[in-house]
């Protein structure tokens, strides 16, 4: 097979969910430590976005942007929950002023109970995408493993992509959850390369207490996976610092480099045995061995 030309380098960022406990205790000090560790790009994950203007630090967009600028940090995305069409425009305006041009949805809408529900969710995603497009922004969908259940012969993830407008709804592919859903992240990256705008990278331990595939005896692939069930079946020992586990990260980077709209690969640590700041520093150092990435 002919090798594809590498078209760009991926800038490495950090998902702030990785330091969520530290942020609760000392939010601005945590941002300072992230900057001191050497990260320059951050993606926020906010589940109270409508109550706190979209980022969670209690500042106006102008002051929040000044704080980020002073630390040498740029916000390159944010998970927004809930997606309330009446109140979302104010959140988008906040992010536009902040300098963030893309927002996403991660975990709000499962279980995907039936096709009618799925189609209604897709219509909402299109509407959110339209609100973003009006502001020169982009909306993206972030997967977990539930999207790799099937309705008939098709995976839920493929149905979401089929029933949303590719000019309004983009993809933030999480390779860890794709793998845990029993799918090949390289194939999904190739299939949705034109819609891929952010890439999430975690890692799976070499001696994990669970099998890689969640549907391999951990949970029934026909079961309705609620958020509670999702949390109850996740073993915190099935995460390790990125670059220290068994995921084919260099292959993932190589596959992603041909995605025309992708600029960032974002490291995310869902659970760690280390201090959170120590954890993201270990991941940074372990991740430096891969080619095709840049930090500046």
Automatic annotation (TrEMBL):
MF GO annotations: isomerase activity
Domain Xylose isomerase-like TIM barrel: 31-289
InterPro entries documented for this protein: IolE/XylAMocC-like, Xyl_isomerase-like_sf, Xyl_isomerase-like_TIM-brl
Keywords recorded for this protein, A-Z: Isomerase
Protein name: Sugar phosphate isomerase/epimerase
């Amino acid at each position: 097979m002919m090798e594809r030309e590498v078209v760009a380098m991926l800038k490495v960022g950090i998902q702030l969910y990785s330091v969520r406990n530290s942020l609760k205790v000392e939010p601005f000090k945590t941002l300072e430590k992230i900057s001191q560790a050497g990260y320059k790009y951050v993606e926020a994950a906010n589940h109270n976005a409508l109550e706190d203007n979209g980022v969670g630090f209690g500042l106006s967009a102008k002051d929040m942007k000044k704080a980020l600028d002073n630390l040498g940090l740029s916000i390159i995305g944010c998970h927004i929950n809930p997606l309330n069409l009446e109140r979302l425009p104010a959140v988008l305006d906040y992010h536009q002023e902040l300098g963030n041009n893309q927002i996403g949805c991660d975990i709000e809408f499962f279980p995907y109970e039936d096709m009618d529900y799925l189609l209604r969710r897709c219509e909402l995603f299109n509407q959110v995408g339209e609100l973003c497009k009006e502001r020169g922004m982009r909306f993206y969908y972030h997967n977990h493993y539930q999207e790799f259940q099937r309705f008939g012969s098709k995976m839920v993830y493929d149905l979401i992509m089929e029933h949303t407008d590719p000019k309004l709804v983009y993809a933030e592919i999480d390779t860890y959850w794709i793998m845990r859903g029993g799918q090949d992240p390289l194939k999904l990256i190739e299939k949705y390369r034109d819609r891929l705008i952010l890439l999430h990278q975690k890692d799976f331990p070499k001696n994990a207490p669970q099998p890689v595939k969640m549907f391999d005896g951990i949970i029934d692939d026909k079961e309705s996976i609620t958020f509670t069930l999702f949390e109850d079946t996740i073993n915190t020992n099935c995460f390790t610092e990125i670059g220290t586990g068994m995921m084919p990260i260099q292959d993932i980077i190589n596959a992603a480099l041909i995605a025309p709209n992708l600029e960032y690969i974002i490291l995310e640590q869902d659970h760690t045995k280390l201090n959170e700041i120590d954890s993201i520093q270990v991941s940074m150092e372990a991740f430096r061995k891969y080619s095709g990435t840049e930090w500046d």
